[in-house]
Design a protein that fits this description.
The chain is built from 25 helices and no strands. It has a domain of 79 residues. It is mostly helical.
Length: 455
């Protein structure tokens, strides 16, 4: 359907581009065309075109009676493009108009959406609450309840989120957001220690919403709810069934992990061993299955089986994010056993990960391993790569800078070592590390050349 509308929109856009305003009548025609292109492009999700036309309309025809509607639509277009701040600016302009354009509370709802995208959750909550409190009820009431529920989750107000989602599901069961709200309600009920209420809600999900795309999520959280309610055996069986039915689902790994934890707590190591074998025999193999097999083997204290799983992971899925995580975990384990050569090799393998944080932490392990192997030049290169990695936690970054200082010290690069120690001492969030850096700085002070000026 979108493709059907796209051709006339492009033609209209071309007409807008070539028309020259030669008279008031022509100007009126151009206003109609520009507005129509902006409106239809939005409907067809051609947001860059819609935004251009609407901004042009507002600039060239500020006295047109459709300015309010155009501003509201421009805000929605900007929001659809991910430009939340300019979108908020448009919605605020609309809310300042008299009367406010759009359906009752429409602009207020979209203001809440923009604030939510900007992570201004308290302000977003206030906007949604005004929509919900409006009399007569706004047609945006169910959408506002959905937004309020998510906002309360962000604000850690889980009991309030339960109330928000419960009202939406009860009063508007046919609303497009109701299936998702049901899942979030169940999650919040589990988190607030009411899993017994989540169970019947999720058991009826597929009947209430047949063929819904969220059916796998409902199955997963139903299993979690049963475990939390004390029905561990049935819940674990459901989690294992979920992982088998949806092996590539984003929750499959969590299902296997939760099942693993529950089985180990119950002393059912035999079941875990059987699950390990099933994952290793799975065809076709998936990175998630091989990674989880390694985790299971590690939990059973079977290091050779762990290596077998993760060696296959590296061989069959060398570029997958889980491969990097597995290599990092192995590097940390062998480093703790003073096997620094293997730790460095595994760390370099982990450094190929597509995840910034994993790469940074992997290079930190490489640096510390190379330092232990008395290869300070290689260690310094690794530490600097770790410190420069985006997404690395501050505590780890300053550990890398401290390691850089040691590597420089080993090479008698006293001035550079002092700079690293000074930075760690001044800014590290780890006070113990900061104190250590001050001690090292004092220890190398006699090796530093005087910097005072000659009189």
């Amino acid at each position: 359907m979108a493709c059907f509308h796209a051709i006339p929109i492009v033609i209209l856009a071309g007409l807008v581009a070539v028309v020259a305003p030669v008279s008031p009548a022509h100007a009126l025609d151009e206003a109609d065309r520009v507005y129509l292109v902006g409106e239809k492009a939005f409907e067809d999700r051609l947001y860059p075109l819609s935004r251009r036309m609407l901004e042009r309309f507002l600039e060239k025809f500020p006295s047109d009676p459709r300015v309010g509607d155009a501003t509201l639509l421009l805000g929605r277009t900007r929001l659809a493009q991910g430009a939340a701040e300019p979108a908020l600016e448009a919605f605020k302009k609309v809310l300042a108009m008299t009367p406010v354009p759009g359906k009752p509370q429409e602009a207020r709802f979209w203001e809440g959406e923009a604030l939510y995208r900007l992570k201004r959750y308290t302000d977003a909550r206030a906007a949604y609450a005004r929509v919900i409190a409006a009399e007569p009820p706004s047609p945006w009431l169910p959408d506002a309840l959905y937004g309020l529920g998510w906002t309360d989750l962000e604000l850690k107000r889980r009991d309030a989120a339960v109330s928000d989602f419960r009202r939406l599901v009860k009063e508007f069961p046919d609303h497009p957001t109701a299936p998702s709200a049901s899942i979030q309600l169940a999650r919040a009920l589990i988190d607030t220690k009411h899993p017994d209420e989540a169970v019947p809600l999720l058991e009826g999900f597929t009947k209430t919403y047949p063929d819904n795309r969220l059916a796998p999520e409902a199955a997963y959280y139903l299993a979690r709810a049963k475990i939390a309610a004390g029905n561990t055996e049935e819940g674990v069986a459901a989690l294992r069934a979920f992982a088998r039915t949806y092996p590539n689902h984003e929750l499959a790994s969590a299902a296997r992990r939760t099942s693993l934890e529950s089985q180990l707590k119950s002393g059912k190591k035999k079941d875990v061993a059987e699950e390990y074998t099933a994952l290793m025999d799975q065809k076709p193999a998936t990175p998630e299955a091989l990674y989880d097999a390694g985790v299971m083997a590690a939990s059973l204290d079977r290091p050779k089986d762990m290596e077998a799983a993760w060696n296959r992971l590296r061989k069959e899925f060398p570029d997958h994010a889980l491969t990097g995580r597995a290599s990092l975990e192995q590097a940390q384990k062998v480093f703790a056993k003073n096997n620094f050569k293997d730790a460095a090799a595994l760390g370099r393998a982990a450094a190929k990960s597509p995840e910034h944080a994993v790469r940074g932490e992997a290079m930190l392990i490489v640096g510390e391993s190379e330092l232990k192997l008395r290869r300070p030049a290689e260690a310094l290169t690794a530490f600097q790569a770790a410190a420069d990695a985006p997404g690395l936690e501050p505590a780890l970054k300053y550990r890398a800078l401290a390691g850089s200082g040691l590597a420089c010290e080993e090479q008698k690069q006293w001035t550079q070592a002092a700079k690293f120690y000074d930075e760690v001492a001044a800014s590290s969030p780890d006070k113990t590390l900061a104190g250590w850096a001050k001690t090292r700085r004092a220890a190398i002070a006699p090796n530093l050349k005087p910097t005072g000026k000659k009189s």
